[in-house]
Amino acid sequence: MSENCNQNCSSCSDDCTERKEPKTDFSEKPHELSNIKKVIGIVSGKGGVGKSLVTSMLAVTMNRMGYHSAILDADVTGPSIPKAFGIKEKATGSEFGLFPIKSKTGIDIMSINLLLENDTDPVVWRGPIIGNTVKQFWTDVIWSDVDFMFIDMPPGTGDVPLTVFQSIAVDGIIIVTSPQELVSMIVSKAVKMAEMMNIPIIGLVENMSYFKCPDNDKEYKIFGDSHIEEIAKKHNLEVLAKLPIDPKISAVCDRGLIELFDGNLWWLKMSRHFFELV
Ligand SMILES: Nc1ncnc2c1ncn2[C@@H]1O[C@H](COP(=O)(O)OP(=O)(O)OP(=O)(O)O)[C@@H](O)[C@H]1O
């Protein structure tokens, strides 16, 4: 029995011996014309820590290595992926389903902003509708020959991420954090959620870890000291990267040119973990 057992089997995914009700399977099949090999979810305990940036750069890195990458932007209320890739056109469809938009370098992307008339329209929908929209990005979009799909998950551990985890067969997740107070609690929540859903955690990424001053090469910890190593040890996880604050990153994102960012070794180091999933 799970140490967190609340005697309510309907809200639990554990296969324990005490189970009273059969496990409900909420998983959805992708579109019948889709072919997706591996799905990696990028999650964060709270917004604004760089989840979309990590999602985008991982897709760019794998694409540069010759793998067909895709991004499913499940962050419906804060969709920043089309902006980072400079995508302005709208998604189209046929009687068979919806087609993702191809970025300049061939990454397939689907996001709510590719369907809304105006990018600036707010998505003032309740959780179940948002959850269903993300499900449809999985079931109604034709994802052709995708080697690695990266999902920019909605921030937090609430209703919407839960729906996404239950409906989409995610092969592994990466948790993105920043070096601030509360990180320990936020990571613990994300880890518990992944454990409940039986989803492997590939590792942790600390974004905005430090800033390296170009004038004196010194590293400054703008958001305070990092505790990511202790947190990783506590949960028996690997720290995949400690990414610096880099004004060049925000500049390319703002100009829709993320595919031109030359990246650094961190991204290549992270990508080796995806091959372990294959
Ligand atoms: N390491 C970094 N250096 C400089 N700017 C960064 C870095 N990481 C992220 N940013 C910038 O910070 C902003 C927030 O990043 P991003 O959109 O990736 O966060 P998020 O966690 O996905 O947020 P949300 O959950 O609100 O969508 C963006 O403008 C991005 O360009």
From TrEMBL:
| Annotated source species | Desulforamulus profundi
Report the HAMAP family cross-referenced here. Mrp_NBP35
Pfam families from the UniProt entry: ParA (PF10609)
Q: Which SUPFAM superfamilies match?
A: P-loop containing nucleoside triphosphate hydrolases
Q: Read off the CDD domains from this record.
A: Mrp_NBP35 (cd02037)
Describe the protein's quaternary organization and the partners it interacts with.
Answer: Homodimer.
Q: Which InterPro entries match?
A: Mrp/NBP35_ATP-bd, NUBPL-like, P-loop_NTPase, YlxH/NBP35
Q: Which family does it belong to?
A: Belongs to the Mrp/NBP35 ATP-binding proteins family.
Briefly state the protein's biological role.
Binds and transfers iron-sulfur (Fe-S) clusters to target apoproteins. Can hydrolyze ATP.
Alphabetized UniProt keyword annotations: ATP-binding, Hydrolase, Iron, Iron-sulfur, Metal-binding, Nucleotide-binding
Q: Does the keyword Hydrolase apply?
A: yes
Q: Name one GO molecular function term.
A: 4 iron, 4 sulfur cluster binding
Q: Which GO terms describe its biological process?
A: iron-sulfur cluster assembly
Q: Does the keyword Disulfide bond apply?
A: no
Binding positions (ATP) = G45, K46, G47, G48, V49, G50, K51, S52
Query: Know the name of this protein?
Result: Iron-sulfur cluster carrier protein
